[in-house]
Amino acid sequence: MHTLIVVAHQNLAGSNTQSFLKETAALVPDATWLELGEQPLTAAEIATAQAQVRAADRIVLQFPLYWYSAPAKMWAWLEQVWVRGVVYDDDGGLLTGKTLGLVVNFGHPLRDYRLGGREGVTVDALLAPFAALARKTGLQMLPPLLIAEFARMTEQEHADLFVHYQQYLSLPRPDSQRQQAEWFAQQLSARGADLMADTLTDLQDESTQLHQTVRELRAGEVE
């Protein structure tokens, strides 16, 4: 499965959250990380982005919640790239069979985003435009991956996010316990193979050193 990760951030270079996610995404096979800039896309860049959308099996829109929405550069990219004839036409959506994921980070606790809470609005309400976008284009929308107060997370919470983010990018159904278990089994198998290869290499090195030592001892006896 090929995943296109579209990242919009007002200060990407200074974001510890996005740096963490970028390093984690690099471990996922067949995932493309696309950082959005400040300038409007050229015609060639639009064509390239549209080709990336067509080629992707999963499109992940990734951003911090900024004034209760995605940063302006995300909407600018969507307006330029997701146009009639590319993602929809008069007969309906043209992205049927693909999935849409949202990875959203918050500077406040998620408990603030509820009716009667500090922010007075729910996360579902804030992300409703993306659900409408998915319906319009024929995408199947995944439950969003929400990251709250990354800087205050514990080491264990960072470790959990490290796993969940990889699963979100790569599993057909990231919330499926069966698929999560299979993913862990594959990871353990791969790590086991690497460990075995390292062990064999060490044994070969030790064997070579032992033979060299024996040869030196025998040479000394002859002398």
Named at the architecture level, the CATH assignment is 3-Layer(aba) Sandwich
**Total strand segments:** 8
In whole angstroms, the N-to-C terminal distance is 66 Å
Proportion of beta-strand residues: 15-25%
CATH topology tier name? Rossmann fold
- Which whole number gives the mean pLDDT? 90
Q: Give the number of helices.
A: 7
Structural class assignment:
alpha/beta
Shape: globular
CATH hierarchy class name? Alpha Beta
Give the ordered list of helices and strands: EHEHEHEEEHHEEHH
Assign the CATH superfamily.
Answer: Flavodoxin domain
Radius of gyration, taken over Cα atoms and rounded to an integer in Å: 24 Å
Helix content: 40-55%
Largest sheet: 6 strands, parallel
Give unreliable regions as ranges. none
- Please indicate the count of domains: 1
Pfam family, one: Flavodoxin_2
GO molecular function: electron transfer activity; FMN binding; NAD(P)H dehydrogenase (quinone) activity
Domain Flavodoxin-like fold: 1-160
Keywords: Oxidoreductase
Topology overview:
Layout: E1 3-7, H1 16-25, E2 31-35, H2 43-55, E3 58-64, H3 72-81, E4 88-89, E5 92-93, E6 99-106, H4 123-126, H5 128-137, E7 140-141, E8 145-148, H6 155-170, H7 177-222
Parallel strand pairs: 1-2, 1-3, 3-6, 6-7, 6-8
Antiparallel strand pairs: 4-5
Helix pairs in contact: 1-6
